Amino acid sequence: MKKFVYTLALIFTLGISFNSVQAADKPAKNPTELTAEQSVQLERIKTRVEEIRDMDKSNLTKAERKALRSELKELKGQARAISGGVYLSVGAIIIIILLLILIL
């Protein structure tokens, strides 16, 4: 059992170091790759988010705060769709690695 745990720890450690090495080799995504229309829309989203952040939310009703939260979620989704990319959390990566180990 100890051998299995040590092997699992070794695989996990090597997997993390391999991902960081791969990330270091890739050049950073250049924001100028967006089209002019996409960059304008992204700028509108940023300004709206800043407006919402700077708002005084203490005198808003519960329904208004809920509407603002849903609007922020929608804006976040639009910004991700424009900028592209897939994001995985560390927990998701660990679960995927464990599933692969169990399957193999």
TrEMBL record:
Signal sequence range: 1-23
Assigned keywords, A-Z: Membrane, Signal, Transmembrane, Transmembrane helix
Bilayer-spanning residue ranges: 81-103
Tree of life domain: Bacteria
UniProt-recorded name of the protein: Seryl-tRNA synthetase
Organism: Pedobacter chinensis
